[in-house]
TrEMBL record:
Residues 346-411 form the FAD-binding domain. Keywords: FAD, Flavoprotein, Membrane, Monooxygenase, Oxidoreductase, Transmembrane, Transmembrane helix. It comes from the Eukaryota. The keyword Transmembrane applies. GO terms for molecular function: FAD binding; monooxygenase activity. The chain crosses the membrane at residues 6-25. Pfam families: FAD_binding_3. This is FAD-binding domain-containing protein.
Amino acid sequence: MQQEKIPTIFIVGAGLGGLSLYHALIKNKDKKEFNVKIFERESSPTDRWQGYHIGLTNYGTQSLLNCIPSSIASNLPKAMPSPIPGVETHGINITDQVGNVLLAPPIKPYKDVYELAKISRGLSTIVTYRDRLRDVLLEGVPVQWNKKCVKYVETQEGVWVSFEDGSQEFCNILVGADGINSPIRKQKLPELQIFNYGITHVCADISVPKHLINKINKINGNILACKTLGTKGDSSFMISRFIPIEQEQNDKKDEPHYRVTLVYSYPSELNNVDVESDKVKVDDNDPASVIEHVKRLIRTLRPDCELTDLLLELWDLAPKTIPNGPIKFPFKTYNPVQRRMMQDIDPMSIKSWTSSRVVLLGDAAHAMSPVLGLGANNAIQDADKLSQALLKYTDNNISFIKEYEKEMLKRTSADVLKSRTVTFKSSTPIGPFGVFIRDSILKVMNVMINFYNFADSLIFKN
Ligand SMILES: Cc1cc2nc3c(=O)[nH]c(=O)nc-3n(C[C@H](O)[C@H](O)[C@H](O)COP(=O)(O)OP(=O)(O)OC[C@H]3O[C@@H](n4cnc5c(N)ncnc54)[C@H](O)[C@@H]3O)c2cc1C
Ligand SMILES: *[C@@H]1O[C@H](CO)[C@@H](O)[C@H](O)[C@H]1NC(C)=O
Ligand SMILES: *[C@@H]1O[C@H](CO)[C@@H](O)[C@H](O)[C@H]1NC(C)=O
């Protein structure tokens, strides 16, 4: 009898989703063995900025812990340090334009990532360093760098994958974990389109000195994620960890500094409006001009108040030039401060999803608005579910892929649409009466959510 060949799986994209899948397949190798190869278009782990903060939820961490072996899990505290009791509250407060709290969803306390992963009801989040999580997940993974996938050709038994360097390789299953602009998705499902919100956002990763953090905390308490709603369709978002970052020797300031991600969103029409009547050129290759643009919008759209002054002060900390050469504290690489379009992909927006040996995972299938912080969680959940489905792999029956897709489509489409609704709700310009209505609704919701959570905690012990 012919010996059974070990099937080959290619993962294209070494982001959070692709790497989680890699670990899960290796972890399961006693149950089902695969040849796994993972390809990444970046040239090295430090090729580009890998992001400051993402939120990992109880569901995301559960899946992450399912995927990774204990040797990797033991490094997780580097990327997701446990909340510091009394110093950090891992949750979100939403305030109005002057800093009055409108919505403060209840927070379930947890000690560390293991306790977080056990929370089975509601949504709890830990603010995670994306760059360090990527590093932790890269450990021991033989990523093939500089391998940009450009297209594939599917046959009965498998898939021929072509790379930009001209090479071609064969696999039995191709997993596209290649992010929102996935060439694999574009080829597999050309009719699945990216949806544009008409909202622009600018994101900056900054290091904030302690005295400014104290000012933020005076308004928001020690909550790590703060959103403030403007009245002109603009909103501001801040997500931090109150753990001092190590500074380089030559940085003379003794004051502790903290990692803060700052986001300002506004209706894209405002890119064309001359808000202060003087002609200003915004060039996305010139960070100083983008930061000036954001500050001008804040000055124009926001009322005169302490919160507005604080936002302006924070935006002043964003790097105004593109650094060249090795970069000092706190940035190992540089996050270009640019205007970006808010986009998503609803995977259920097309009539049918063709199931084949080419499978999608993460942002490639269902990029979503970052407003609820669910993107990375769904990518990691996909990896977990797909690795379980692959246990059923046989050479001539790939219906396990359909089973994975069924669950994935339902879960992620719901989150894409939820995130879309919340984004639009907080981006609609409103007049004074509208402000009154909005504030009243959110305050009532706040009371109700907190009440139901209280009732819930009486009924369920978790
Ligand atoms: C550099 C970076 C920084 C980010 N920063 C943040 C952040 O600060 N906050 C936040 O909320 N979210 C951030 N995100 C998005 C967040 O990580 C994703 O929403 C989430 O992790 C989904 O993961 P994913 O694995 O599906 O895709 P991603 O994490 O986007 O990974 C996709 C990977 O595929 C690679 N790739 C793309 N095309 C090809 C190709 N043709 N061939 C080979 N490889 C390819 C990309 O280089 C990337 O490494 C960031 C994403 C990236 C890539
Ligand atoms: C968030 O809002 C609540 C409710 O108004 C407020 O009491 C609290 O100080 C704010 N910050 C934190 C960390 O909860
Ligand atoms: C193919 O596999 C699925 C399980 O993934 C199973 O339910 C189905 O019966 C199989 N079909 C055939 C023809 O073996």
